[in-house]
Each structure stands twice: as C-alpha cells, then as structure tokens.
C-alpha cells in the first residue's frame, strides 16, 4: 500500500480514550493513513483504536517516528521493534527519523534503518525536519530509497526548496501543521477562496497541499466535526486562480520552532 495523500495526525493525543475514539471515527470516516511517533506516547492507543474500528490492518498505512534520544545504532534497532510491538504489527509501514538532532548520526542512524528494512521490521524509511543539505547527505548515506520527508508546511510556510527536492528525488513531502493549528482561518486570501467554494479555511489549506505533486497532508483533529471536515477536503477542487491567490500570500509563519532546530543551526 502506498501512502494516501491525506493522513490523520495524532500529536497530543496521549489520553487513551480520546485517542481510541478519534482513531475509530477517523477509520469510519475513511482515513487510511495514521501518523504517530514514539514521542507522542500513544502508539499503543493508536493500535487499540485501529483494533476497535475493525479495519483490516492491510488497508491502513501507519507511520511512526524515532525519538531523538533513540537514534544511535542499537537504539534505532531496539526501539523500532518496540514500536512495532506497540503498534500491533510485524512490519511498520514507514519509520521516520523525527529530528536530525541529539543522537542523530548519518552513518549510525541510517545504516540501522537500512538494516531494519532488510529484516522486515519496517517497510520504508522516512526523515523529518531535515534541512535541504542534511536531506541530500542522508539520501547519499541510505541504501534504501528515501520514501518520505515530513516537515511543517502550509500556505504561510510553502517549503518550495524542500518540495523541489521531493519531486526531484521522488519522495513524498508530508505536511505537518497543515492547517497551521487553525491559523489559516485568519488569512484573508484563504478566507476569500473558502467563501467562493462554500468551504472552510482548513479545507482550502488541505486541498492546496493535496493538489501538489508528491505532497501528503496529515491534519490532527480530536473533535468529530473537524475529523469529518478535514476528510471532506478531498472533494474540494481548487482552480488556477485559487492557487495563484494562495501562492501570493506573503505572511510567513513557522509554528514548530526552537533554538536547536536544524534551520536555526545552518
Ligand atoms: N514531524 C514533526 O516534527 C511534527 C511536528 C508537529 C506535528 N506533526 C504531525 O502532524 C500532525 C498535524 O500537525 P498539528 O497537530 O501540529 O497541527 P494541525 O493539524 O495544523 O492543527 C491541529 C489543531 O487544529 C484543530 N483543527 C483540526 N481540524 C480543524 C478544522 N477543520 N478547523 C479548525 N480547527 C481544526 C485541532 O483541534 P481538535 O483537535 O480540537 O479537533 C488542533 O487543535 C500532528 O498531529 C503530528 O502527527 C509532526
């Protein structure tokens, strides 16, 4: 199964009941891709939600991420197996390096990921939050093809350079914070496009992302209305004029940011 271009984000869903209920509804609504991480402390809850939903596990693409403390060779190997167990699967569809910081080392971390693919513990390798130069370096170190790069991306952070690299190297660019945690609702250009299509600003942002080559969006929603609304963005078709308007947004906003982040240490 290839990665569906709309996924279900689960950051901050560390309450078991909330996570299980949200995953169940997401599966019922039609999502076929769930994004979690060791850092979110909810891999087992995601698995419980999938079980409760009754979905065939072959019909859902589940991605998780290695914690930044778990990037040394032995820790990658050991904790990937722990994640697989928590997720209730023999093979993780996609395992990302969450951040190229702390214990990240291109040789150690990436050779362990290559081996995990050979051993069948993971199906594909992903990276997250890499600068363009770090991404190119990682691609050179990996024997396996890079399948996905996950970064913050929305109309106020369009990530043109990383998108060009995704198309050039043919991997998915997976957009986190795809509705800028609700802030897209405050942007006049997005409001105008939403009004024109009788849609919501969140749907416009998601449709803008999903309409791009090799881009996948992973909105998080705990509220049932948001879960359904975001899924319905698949039916929204933006025309060239809408895209031009959104591409013309000049406001820039990066939500996930801290001193050690790769882009602050070039
Ligand atoms: N790789 C990384 O470093 C990284 C970093 C951040 C996020 N992520 C991943 O990306 C996923 C998405 O990012 P995110 O959760 O940070 O931000 P997001 O998806 O842009 O925003 C989520 C927030 O927006 C609200 N929301 C959802 N749908 C909405 C709608 N239709 N209208 C208005 N508000 C809506 C949610 O509320 P309710 O929950 O109350 O519905 C929640 O507060 C995460 O869950 C995680 O899986 C990865």
UniProtKB/TrEMBL annotation:
Pfam name, any one: Aldo_ket_red
Lineage: superkingdom: Archaea
PROSITE patterns xref list: ALDOKETO_REDUCTASE_2
Keyword line: NADP, Oxidoreductase
Keyword Coiled coil belongs to the record: no
Keyword Amino-acid biosynthesis annotated: no
GO MF annotation, one: oxidoreductase activity, acting on the CH-OH group of donors, NAD or NADP as acceptor
Domain NADP-dependent oxidoreductase: residue ranges: 6-249
PANTHER family, sorted: 2,5-DIKETO-D-GLUCONIC ACID REDUCTASE, NADP-DEPENDENT OXIDOREDUCTASE DOMAIN-CONTAINING PROTEIN
Stated family: Belongs to the aldo/keto reductase family.
Name of this chain's protein: Aldo/keto reductase
